[in-house]
Predict the 3D structure of the following.
Amino acid sequence: MAMKRTLAIVLAGGEGKRLMPLTEDRAKPAVPFGGNYRLIDFSLSNMVNSGYLKIVVLTQYKSHSLDTHIARTWRMSGLLGNFVAPMPAQQRRGPHWYLGSADAIYQSLNVVYDERPDYIVITGADNIYRMDFSQMVDYHIASGMPATVAGIRQPIELADQFGVIKEKDGVVEEFLEKPKNAEGLDDDPSVVLASMGNYVFDTKALIEALRKDAANPDSKHDMGGDIVPYFVERGECAVYDFKDNIVPGSTERDRDYWRDVGTVDAYYDANLDLISIHPIFNLYNYDWPLLTQTDPLPPAKFVHGDMGSRMGHAVDSLVSEAVIVSGAEVTRSVLSPKVAVHSWAQVSDSVILNSAVINRRARVHRAILDKNVVVEENASVGFDHELDRSRGFTVTESGITVVPKDAIVRA
């Protein structure tokens, strides 16, 4: 019954400044990931696999490619009343765009009034994980609380990057925003319980909280910073521990995997998490599929088998449709659709996005090449960081070079 009375809201309006230049021309949830996917596909796959087929996606910044992807890929049966609907900022509450995640939902309450759900599930659109939200909703209902926040165990040294939950007997006692001196859990002092940005609310209670928040001139109108503390202060917020979520087909190694890809380094690391022999995030779990739609493309092709001078091969890598590796060497990398790697080129420890071309004798190492990048013959990326910076490319603190969309890398 709860499944039929539940509306899902996916927050996809973030600007994604920390993921620049990958978000220079696209919304963060539209950033490609893992070859075939976009970041939003993970949240939407989790919702659909959980049985929630009425989904609103709240968009705002640079949303054209995101809206197009949703419209082409995430089509539901209107006959059955199911939908995945992108919903841009509409200025229903005044001449301003979304002021924060809570204001985004407040401005979109018309869809809540139309659907009249008893429960609302809210999640972000840019994290990599698998989760059965129906288990969290069942937990929420059983708790009797009007609000539930999902928590995940994270190393205590990362506490200042998250909202940290202090709980007792399943009730949130404190919600600390990026604390500098966090205390570890009783059963494991080396970790804290961090907010995943996933919530379940009783609809009436959420509407009341949003209305009060909208009337508060001192509020930042943020779900984690304002709405959750509102319920915590009233002793009305339960916590759901992500480790208790059992997804079909998961293993002990990957079942509680969750990665916030809010920075370029985190995005890079999450992509490379996919390519090990026993990955800590397994794309090949067919019991909980990651759903998307790609263009009708031919299979990948590896050509030239000359063992002496050139042989097209890729090892410890993900290779997508229509990739051509022609007499080149690819190691520990993710190649997105329609990438071409030409003879004697070398690609290692890199993430190559759609339609990039690496020409003869070019070298790419520890780099992210955005869509349509061309690396000219004999050019290199990722070996000389000062040279990369002088070309206008981004180099992260960990040494990952990011080449923006449509750039040409010359020798």
Q: What stands out?
A: The chain has a mean pLDDT of 91. Residues 213 and 221 are 6 Å apart (CA to CA). The two ends are 62 Å apart (CA to CA).
